[in-house]
Amino acid sequence: MKENEPEAREKCSFAIDVEHAKRFTALRREQRRAMAEWVRDLVEESNGGISRDEARLEARRRRSELWPTLDQHVERAVRQRLAEEDLAGPWEPLTATEVEFATLAGRGIGKNYPGYLITRTYELPLSLIRDLRTAAIRVSEGPLKELEELGLLYNSLDYTPEEYDKREELVKRVMSAPRIVRQALERFGPWPPDEHPPSSIAAMGTAALLNQG
């Protein structure tokens, strides 16, 4: 990539909490209203010196600063989550085979989120997607290996209470890329940190909540 050239981005789909999806929808409506008002005020304050189209162009140039897109909000939240101690690494880079496997859908061990999820697509920098997938795979290697060795990789009604508890303990340590994104939005989304969706509190755990002060 050439110096000062924008980094390539890629669209990725993630299952996020429905409450966060609703908040993003409300935020987008609010931003559109705020942007329209900003354009109107700029035209009025210029006393005819700036046309509406010129004001709209200026608004578009300043959108990243004043009205970040949903992609930008997700990017910022994910960067903050990946910077936390448990995901920060450093990690061994993924092999070509691991990169290929990481793009396959349906490779998780099953839904481990207590709330309602909805799929949304966001466009993120390729380097961030790489870091997200790397952290997810490297953090999950240990618990996934232990699950397989104990024969607990797949859910079953035949497990003993002890086996079930052990599986639940290990599953909590498995960090898929979508799960990291959900936690990122829970902790660093564009809303007050004490306003968690009802389902996210259980997903985050007591320690994560306490760490937020």
- Order of strands across the main sheet: 1-2
Note the overall shape: elongated
> Assembly type of the shown chains?
single chain
**Poorly predicted tracts of residues:** 200-213
Beta fraction: 5-15%
Helix and strand string, N-terminal first? EHHHHHEHHHHH
Query: What's the Cα radius of gyration?
Result: 21 Å
Q: How many beta-strand elements?
A: 2
The assigned structural class equals mainly alpha
Describe the structure.
- The structure is a single chain.
- The protein has 213 residues and is mostly helical.
- It contains ten helices and two strands.
- It has helices spanning 18-45, 52-61, 63-66, 70-82, 96-102, 126-149, 161-171, 177-188, 200-204, 206-211, and strands at residues 9-17, 117-125.
- It has a two-stranded antiparallel ribbon with strand order 1-2.
- The model is unreliable at 200-213 (pLDDT under 50).
Summarize the structure.
This protein has helices at residues 18-45, 52-61, 63-66, 70-82, 96-102, 126-149, 161-171, 177-188, 200-204, 206-211; strands spanning 9-17, 117-125. With 213 residues, it is mainly alpha-helical.
Using brief descriptors, characterize the structure shown:
two-stranded antiparallel ribbon, single chain, 10 helices, mainly alpha, 213 residues
